[in-house]
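Lecture 7, part B: from sequences to assemblies.

Below are the input chains for today's worked example.
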Amino acid sequence: MTLSWLSFIISFILSIAFISGQKLYSPRLSLRREDILRDPKRAVSASETNDFKTFFFNQTLDHFNYRPESYSTFKQKYLINYKYWGGANSNAPIFVYLGNESPLDDQLTVIGFLTDNAAQFEALSVYIEHRYYGESIPHGMSLEEALKDANIRGYFSSAQALADFAAIIMHVKQDLKARDSPVIVVGASYGGMLASWFRLKYPHVTLGALASSAPILYFDDIISQDAYSSVVTKDFKEASETCYQAIGDSWSEIDRIAQEPNGTSKLSKMFKTCKPLESGDELKDYLISMYEGAAQYDLPPTYPVSVICNAIDGANTTENGILGKVFAGLIAYNTNSACYVNPPTAISQSSLGWGWQRCSEMVMPKGVTNNSMFQPDPFILSSFTDECNHQYGVVPRPHWITTYYGAHDIELILCRFGSNIIFSNGLRDPFSSAGVLKNISDSIVAVYTEKGAHCLDVYAEDQSDPDWLVMQRKTEFEIIRGWIAKYYADLRAFKQ
Amino acid sequence: MTLSWLSFIISFILSIAFISGQKLYSPRLSLRREDILRDPKRAVSASETNDFKTFFFNQTLDHFNYRPESYSTFKQKYLINYKYWGGANSNAPIFVYLGNESPLDDQLTVIGFLTDNAAQFEALSVYIEHRYYGESIPHGMSLEEALKDANIRGYFSSAQALADFAAIIMHVKQDLKARDSPVIVVGASYGGMLASWFRLKYPHVTLGALASSAPILYFDDIISQDAYSSVVTKDFKEASETCYQAIGDSWSEIDRIAQEPNGTSKLSKMFKTCKPLESGDELKDYLISMYEGAAQYDLPPTYPVSVICNAIDGANTTENGILGKVFAGLIAYNTNSACYVNPPTAISQSSLGWGWQRCSEMVMPKGVTNNSMFQPDPFILSSFTDECNHQYGVVPRPHWITTYYGAHDIELILCRFGSNIIFSNGLRDPFSSAGVLKNISDSIVAVYTEKGAHCLDVYAEDQSDPDWLVMQRKTEFEIIRGWIAKYYADLRAFKQ
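Predicted structure of the full complex, as structure tokens:
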């Protein structure tokens, strides 16, 4: 017991180090509530979330095998909002949100797309939690407990998650006797990948998918590993050339000071860190993460990239030179903080869970080699593999995602296969570089906005939304309306 | 060790009883070499099979999970015929045969479709063995050994088999630097189901599929459980009304004699059985199986249904009455036998393996309730489940196939989804009743013949082939030629 606790604590510490370390190229795939909710108006209203009824489904642990353990079940959480539903008799549609790598409740407070549009479609809204997140963890374990068990965590995979969604959707339809109701799935970020894959793998369970900010091309050798950082760079450069230049120049300045006697102590004071810095890299990792977050969630009406750049450009250069500028950007981004860089925070389920998912199958080779405002930091598969092997004792399968879901030559493959997928993106979002930005066929289409951020289109509507965002959502729903209309016509023809 | 051997022997005996018992509704899904090779000309010539080179691939045991054991590998056999291949430079096509529930070598000797057409397409031919059959069994075990281990047999599933095929095809393409070569998969019977599912699940790995005699609708509540027996009945009735009548009348006559003192002994003599019968049911089970086999493999030029019916109709009724007629049919079907009904035979891999597959996921509810020349023998899911649970300690998942692959409302689902599948059937084959017999879209099409039998279109060509069979094959290949031509045009457009 002592030994296993010790190994748990060690692996926990490693996992924190692993996830916060820049070498891990951890893409911030989750919807970061703290980023999104900088503007609290962006949250779904409490009255709306009160309309949901909570259920737990006895989910099969292992859909693909027939070992005795495969038959184990766990409680998987899902929510239903019946308020606007037109009912089974009219085959009214069912909108299903496919949860991503965080507790469902967190997502519920930001995703408004389904309920915002449910009334006009008389749609049922269903939100399903992804296995191993929130309250949907096998054996009633915490995620930490599940992840430290090499056997239990082994069932934490995307293919299992899609089969979970299929089982729950079919159960809900059967329960409501709504066999002919069309189902539209919606997913955001990793959940957006799941949504597009779900339409491709389970066309008999869903009529169509809205895949918001789904970086499905960030696998294998499909795109450059620099794709993400080059968009972050572009965002800052477009906001301000001088700001971009200052950030680019700051890294070597941090390195220079860190190497001085008491250099890290000097940097700690300069950046008002919550704890003394352990290295210059700690500061750099934080700043990289901040710039990436600002770009990914460069949300209206505040536009954090501009907030940071305005502060950097407007800073008094006499105080602390270029790092004074960078610090001005930092405090403009983090208002109301008493200290910066390394405040005491608990590690999130998203970080923990995604740490495992990346080390098993979600190998997204994000790195920096050139054309960036960051220092080079290439993704090296062998190092990544070693680190994952060290942490979990298994090696990632870097080719599985493209083997199971495909992605190479996606236009060639899907131009005559499949239908009814919207790939939505905002081009300010660095992940848009790995998204589908061209129409592939009449009904596998790309809808993007120049100014949009990560998953912005599926957030709750707000009165301050700019026109281009209102238009994007309208376009998406007109497309979905078209799918449903064609489906009803087909249904009438086949049921005659 | 003694105990485990004992339990193995018991389970082996149970498995034989289980498989031969009529209550198990075992559809003869495999290509029965003994049926097909009644006419030895039907075999692929030895010189043709000599052109194959044999390979073994290090296959992942469990593609869908990341448990430590998931990473185990086993040797999976595949064969390549390079003789006609045009090479990677010209993106020449690759035909891939997806093995079904028998050793690959057995299939190689009857499946001629790929090599018969390889020359005109300059195609590479690849044959892949299905996991757990032939020489592709994990841990170098025999199938019997693998099946008695509750853990090992648990990885014996169709989803794993499809992922195996994907991994090998991608490996072969990579090895040959043939990334842009179109792949056409071909499968027969259960392998035909796999072929159609493979195109739906892995469109990025295969351009199209020929699914020969694939009863993909024989799941859940999609079609009547009587579908199979009603086609057998129709075949016999069409061959001869009096023959059909005689068979229909024979069952109660067997029952009547079996109930007499020394009745089974009398039946044993009457039917010249190899061993004394244990019951009238043993004889009935054999006869049912014979009539089903004759209908399923009612192959030209002999047409076994007619052979049986001619003998029944021509028999001297003075000797043994109606059972004398039935016996005349039996000996006409089994020429050159010294004894009948229960000759000493080893249980085949197909029977063993399919026994497990049916008890885990391939739950095809085949039964007899009415409108048949057989006595009623309904499929009762609860009894089936009990028997499987008794034999393997697991309960079947009767809804998994329709959850993962779909099949309900297939026309509605696929009329605007997917492409490039040929469902080929021969209507004399009882499994055609569960096949797709209508075009679903421009490129998901049905090609069938009135007189065709199970998988006949993919057998090796023979000079005695009737015109309708030659035409069917020609139609199929013209469709495939069209897919490939469109693909090359798309490829040129995308690679410009």
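Note for the exam: The CA atoms of residues 31 and 41 of chain A lie 16 Å apart. Keep this in mind when comparing with the next example.
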